[in-house]
Write a structure and sequence with these properties.
The chain is an alpha/beta fold. The chain is built from four helices and eight strands, in the order βαβαβββααβββ. It has a four-stranded mixed beta sheet with strand order 1-6-7-8, covered by helices on one side. A four-stranded mixed beta sheet has the order 3-4-2-5. β7 and β8 form a beta hairpin. α1 crosses α2. It is elongated and about 65 Å long. The two termini are 18 Å apart.
């Protein structure tokens, strides 16, 4: 059985990893400064491009904002208006929420914006990529060759919403059996060509 993941384009994954890096840097700076236990959720605007943002400074600036009034942590959930976010993240944040915790809570980068619709083309592209390797697989002498296409929802690069134009039974594959799994449901895709 061959297993592959469906993922969004590299540019989106790169941008999301920068967002996560900023959140990690902010968390480290906040804890190093002795801030009280807190849980943080930061959402960036859809289509945010952080290529020109100094991620080290952005993390430091966010940590300082949470340490100082008016952003200082207190009991209850605090939401900050995006226009009040200082420093390099100004203009890139959709929402910042934080609240105190008895122990340090997770700091999360919540990806905001539209999620790609799942259409027949999404698994078909994954099948096409793996089809190139099928002759080498067949040379190994096994009786059957299955393909499992995964879109695990915990991976931001693999999130898809249900598409009206997704018809698993019509997707063709040269593998003996082909399955699509998204963490909640599994479909067998079409029949062998």
């Amino acid at each position: 059985m061959e297993v592959t993941q469906i993922q969004t384009p590299p540019e989106e994954r790169e941008s999301y990893s920068w967002m996560e890096e900023i959140v990690r840097r902010a968390e480290r700076a906040y804890l190093d400064a002795g801030g009280p236990p807190v849980r943080v959720q930061l959402s960036f605007l859809p289509g945010t491009n952080l290529r020109g943002v100094d991620r080290r400074e952005a993390g430091r600036s966010l940590a300082q904002f949470l340490l100082d009034p008016p952003g200082s942590v207190h009991s209850g959930i605090s939401s900050v208006e995006p226009r009040n976010i200082p420093g390099p993240l100004s203009g890139h944040v959709l929402q910042l929420q934080f609240w105190s915790e008895p122990d340090p809570g997770p700091w999360q980068c919540i990806q905001a914006g539209p999620v790609e619709a799942l259409t027949d083309e999404v698994p078909a592209a994954a099948i096409a990529r793996r089809t190139e390797r099928l002759p080498a697989y067949r040379n190994k002498g096994f009786d059957k060759y299955w393909l499992l296409i995964c879109a695990p929802p915990e991976n931001p690069a693999c999130r898809f919403e249900d598409g009206r134009n997704f018809s698993p039974s019509t997707i063709e594959s040269p593998f003996d059996r082909t399955f699509f799994y998204d963490g909640w449901q599994m479909f067998e895709l079409g029949n062998r060509k």
